[in-house]
Request: fold
Amino acid sequence: MKRYLKGLYMAFGMFCAIPMPFRLWDDGSANLVLPCFPLVGALIGVLWWGIAKLLFFCEVHAMLTSAVLAIIPFIATGFLHLDG
Reply:
């Protein structure tokens, strides 16, 4: 179980700017990083959805809502792999 958590932390450390407990890279857990990528994407998606719901609930103007929702994935991933 410890190896799986280390793989999860390594996946979050690679593709997410959301703070996680620091773990050094471990080659023994490197094969567990790839299966954890959907969890990273799911967390970013839930964060994005939650902020959208909050903005709609607070009745923020549509232009500001769209601007905030457009920048959230950039901030959540630390501007990684969003150049396409």
Summary: The chain has one domain: 2-77. The two ends are 36 Å apart (CA to CA). The CA atoms of residues 36 and 45 lie 14 Å apart.
